[in-house]
Amino acid sequence: MRTFRTLPADRPDPDTLPDWCDVDVRSIPAVPEWCIETFTDPGDAVIDPFAGFGTTIAAADRLGRAGYGIERDPRRVAYVRERVDHPRRVVVGDAREGRSAFISDATGDQEEFISSDGSERKPHINADDDEEDHEGGDVDPPAFDLCCTAPPFMLDWMDTDPFEGYESAGSYGAYLADATAAFEAVADLLAPEGIAVVEVSNVRFGPGVSTLAWDLADAIDDAAGLRFRTEIVLGFEDGDIGFEDDASGDDGDRMVDAAGDDRTWGPETGRYGYGYDHCYCLVFDHVS
Ligand SMILES: C[S@@+](CC[C@H](N)C(=O)[O-])C[C@H]1O[C@@H](n2cnc3c(N)ncnc32)[C@H](O)[C@@H]1O
Fold this sequence. Notes:
two-stranded antiparallel sheet; globular; N-methyltransferase activity; methyltransferase; 8 helices; DNA_methylase_N4/N6; binds S-adenosylmethionine; 8-stranded mixed beta sheet; alpha/beta; S-adenosyl-L-methionine; DNA binding
């Protein structure tokens, strides 16, 4: 398999983010599309345990696969549910809980009160949903052919926990241990020949680099049931993703985009940037 690919760099339109959201963590849609087309066939089941705004699930819908997701933020789940073919396949939960997140999905209660714009109303359910989707309550997840996901990022200098919404204290070591646990839960959801593909980048912030991609490859390889197969570098067609290389600039440790906006990823800015024109897809095989 070729380990370098170039994909369209079309970013999602920032205007399609809801007002309450000030951080755009969405993947470039071409990345999950490429993963799904490469590693699955039509009709296969795909899970994103860190579903975010549903880029992977929407791509699965478009490509005729069955997309499922877990996401800890109820507002993001409400947003996704309004945009996918099978809303009940997306649940509020903790990826580290794996299968039980589908069983104990709290949205049975929350959907009465939360929608993606923060108003109080029930979610839109498509008329052509499966019976399973109309029933409410637990969703019995299938054995997944592919996990396609981008986990929450942490840099080695940060001290808050990404798996808890950056709201409690954390450390890089604890984050990597949690990543191992989350992907053990993923392995439990995969079919025997299933594959997990993890989109991640090493992250440059000013003069330093956090080797997140390589550290996560190691951490996930430690998960029972998953073995690292390869990394695939995905480059983007226009050669950049909107960030200037400030290594020799006058901006100290700030990252400034082409429009002059500060893209430094830090708690004080609430924004992030990879600082690179590529990402990694880490590929893991499900092993018994
Ligand atoms: C990098 S974003 C994924 C973005 C997604 N690929 C998209 O295009 O919208 C990571 C997501 O993981 C969610 N998350 C963080 N900790 C989690 C946890 N313990 N369980 C499930 N989701 C979690 C975050 O809320 C965030 O939406």
